[in-house]
Design a protein that fits this description.
Blueprint lengths: L15 H15 L8 E2 L7 H4 L13 E9 L3 H12 L5 E4 L8 H4 L11 H4 L3 H4 L10 H14 L12 E7 L4 E6 L4 E9 L9 E2 L10 E4 L5 H4 L15 E5 L3 H13 L2 E6 L5 E2 L8 H5 L5 H14 L16 H12 L7 H26 L3 H7 L11 E2 L12 E5 L8 E2 L3 E4 L2 E4 L2 E4 L9 H5 L3 E3 L6 H4 L18 E3 L11 H21 L4 E4 L1 H14 L4 H6 L25 H14 L5 E4 L1
The structure holds NADPH dihydro-nicotinamide-adenine-dinucleotide phosphate.
Pfam family, one: FMO-like
Cofactor: FAD
Organism: Sphingomonas tabacisoli
């Protein structure tokens, strides 16, 4: 298997110097000195955008007062995989706790019309070999993934233990009984020996801090809380039949927006698409799963496929290695590998290799800008929709339906790039270019809090370790951990996420391995009859120092990028920068953890009996 390189404009027709100048100008136009502060925290009037659940009714229940071994905070893929590894480690006393009404995490909340995975499903959906499940197509629909989360939960006995529609309000370490006390908005008091924080990366809606947003009197909702009562239709049935007499605006043209926009365009009387920075939007062939292919897959195929994806997206193919993924995520590596193969794999210095890679990047971006010209009629829209930055400054997207939307009479593209976003909102609508646009409904496809302060993202009032120390203060300037999963002063607490560890292109693989490591430490601690485990200060200091020494400095690349949550809104070396990683790479990180576990001595941990 494998695929051919794409046809991009030839290198000698790409004026790299001119493109560099254009990229820099576009970045400067978009840089916002406010950084993360340009977004409004979900609270007060906006609290409903996070707390309320449009999908399932909240059923009254009695408060839970109990003791258990492990509380897993979150029931998305991070929490599900942590629990899966707990069961594998023989631990039976645990619960997933989530403020959603079911398993699924982002796939529970995000049911907007058109929601679909835009990564290769055969990589993204975890435990396919363990469950025997096979996605129905390359880019699975959101409903299928949500359903699959429940399949895993049922298969591995997580369902009956879970506590849903439960928002954690505080987590405090109680030295007297060496347990965490977890309190919730349902009056629960749960005393857990261990806590796994699997809150997710895209859990907290991010609201654009548009001046006057709270004065708008029309309907407004975030895509992660789609209001089908208002729009008509239902999850999986995007017939938005109540919008026929409505003027709708959508803020954003990111991964979410480009999936929802074709449906809004089809049904709204008039749709304004408010764009600040254009995305790269490639074609999206989405074939059904080939049964013949699926039948002959050999054990270990998913790990192999994920490793192939990781090399293509974040490292590079080995000579002769086929591209198993064959989509936008792997195009640059695929094209470059084809060039190098044709040249007999010349020996290149790292600088030469990176220069070649950058040139292919320019060619691929030219190809993607060419798509806009092919598919959009209006010359002004064509110019506004062309992305001017390096691939991977923003999340690469694919859709066959997005660009043609702008050829419809009822769709208007509102370019707000020069004003760094929507100028302001009024009682009746929004203002752009000095003109007020009256609307009935504003849909916020404005993304999620990914790199803002931890407190803002977790939304948990207090998380206090030893001596009442707040984790928010402890990590004010970024995380300090051992192996990215534990921190000194917060015994028996584990973290799943993008926190000072290895980085893997397949996020569910990364979270799963963190869960596996946490489950090992918990099982080992319990087996020793110990009460508490935490990294020693010395071991943590040593790990943090090594992490920083080995880290590959990406600031030059990031400095040149148009801002996004991929690049911390333009703040280089931000404390919670997303893609900080163990420098020697994912495989080296995995080996280090496996070796550490194999030795069995819990080196660097302080264990309290
Ligand atoms: P993004 O953060 O990617 O996009 C937010 C959009 O809102 C951007 O276009 C942004 O513009 C725009 N925006 C924010 N504030 C303003 C403002 N004040 N004025 C105008 N525009 C504004 O969020 P998404 O929800 O689209 O995607 C988030 C992530 O969710 C994805 O990157 C992906 O990881 C995940 N996702 C995954 C999917 C999957 O299939 N696996 C599908 C959908 C989402 P600007 O670019 O200028 O900041």
């Amino acid at each position: 298997m494998g695929c051919e390189p794409t046809r991009t404009p030839p290198a000698d027709q790409v004026d790299i110097a001119a493109l560099r100048r254009r990229y820099a100008a576009e970045r400067d136009k978009r840089l916002n000195s406010e950084g993360e502060a340009q977004y409004v925290r979900v609270s007060g009037d906006f609290n409903d955008l996070y707390v309320s659940d449009p999908h399932l009714p909240v059923v009254p229940r009695l408060p839970v007062h109990e003791e258990l071994d492990v509380a897993v905070l979150g029931a998305g893929f991070g929490g599900i995989l942590a629990s899966y590894y707990l069961t594998k480690a023989g631990i039976g006393s645990f619960r997933n706790i989530d403020h959603a009404g079911d398993f699924g995490g982002v796939w529970y909340w995000n049911r907007y019309p058109g929601v679909q995975c835009d990564n290769d499903s055969y990589c993204y959906l975890p435990l396919l070999e363990e469950t025997g499940f096979m996605p129905s197509k390359k880019f699975a629909d959101g409903a299928e993934i949500y359903g699959y989360c429940k399949v895993i939960a049922d298969r591995f006995g997580l369902t009956e233990r879970a506590l849903f529609h439960t928002l954690i309000t505080s987590i405090k370490w109680e030295e007297s009984d060496q347990r965490w006390l977890i309190e919730t908005n349902r009056g629960d008091r749960i005393r857990a020996r261990f806590v796994i924080m699997a809150a997710g990366v895209l859990n907290m809606p991010k609201l654009p801090g548009i001046h006057g947003i709270d004065s708008f009197k029309g309907k407004m909702f975030h895509t992660a809380r789609w209001d089908y009562d208002y729009t008509g239709g239902a999850p999986g049935n995007p017939a938005l039949d109540k919008l026929g007499d409505k003027t709708v605006a959508i803020v954003g043209t990111g991964a979410t927006a480009i999936q929802a926009i074709p449906h809004l365009a089809r049904h709204a009387k008039l749709l304004y698409v408010i764009q600040r920075t254009p995305s790269t939007v490639d074609e999206r062939p989405n074939p059904p799963t080939d049964d013949g292919w699926a039948k002959v897959l050999q054990p270990g195929w998913q790990a192999e496929r994920r490793a192939n994806f990781h090399r293509a997206a974040m490292e590079f193919f080995a000579p002769g290695e086929p591209d198993l993924i064959c989509d936008i995520w792997t195009e640059i590596s695929r094209n470059l590998a084809a060039e190098l193969a044709a040249e007999g794999w010349p020996a290149l210095t790292p600088e030469e290799f990176m220069a070649r890679r950058e040139r292919v990047d320019f060619q691929v971006m030219e190809r993607l800008r060419g798509r806009v010209e092919e598919l959009v009629d209006d010359p002004a829209d064509v110019e506004a929709l062309k992305p001017w930055y390096r691939y991977q400054c923003k999340r690469p997207l694919s859709s066959d339906d997005f660009y043609p939307v702008f050829n419809r009479d009822n769709v208007e593209l509102i370019d707000v790039s020069t004003t760094k976003g929507v100028e302001r909102m009024t009682e009746h609508g929004f203002v752009a270019g000095g003109k007020e646009y009256p609307i009935d409904c504003m849909v916020l496809a404005s993304g999620f809090e990914v790199t803002s302060d931890l407190e803002r993202r977790w939304g948990i009032g207090a998380v206090q370790g030893r001596d009442g120390k707040s984790i928010y203060d402890h990590w004010r300037n970024g995380p300090k951990t051992l192996h990215g999963v534990m921190t000194h002063g917060f015994p028996n607490m584990f973290f799943i996420g993008y926190i000072q560890g290895g980085l893997m292109a397949s996020v569910t693989e990364q979270f799963g391995r963190q869960g596996e490591h946490a489950a090992y430490i918990i099982a080992e601690t319990m087996m020793r009859g110990a009460k508490a485990v935490e990294p020693s200060q010395a071991a943590q200091d040593e790990y943090v120092k090594t992490f920083q020494e080995l880290e590959i400095d990406q600031s030059a690349f990031q400095r040149e990028c148009t801002p996004s949550y991929f690049t911390n809104e333009g703040v280089v070396k931000a404390p919670w920068a997303l893609f900080r990683q163990w420098g020697p790479g994912w495989d080296a990180f995995m080996k280090m953890l496996a070796d550490w576990r194999d030795k069995g001595d819990m080196a660097g941990m302080e264990i309290t009996s």
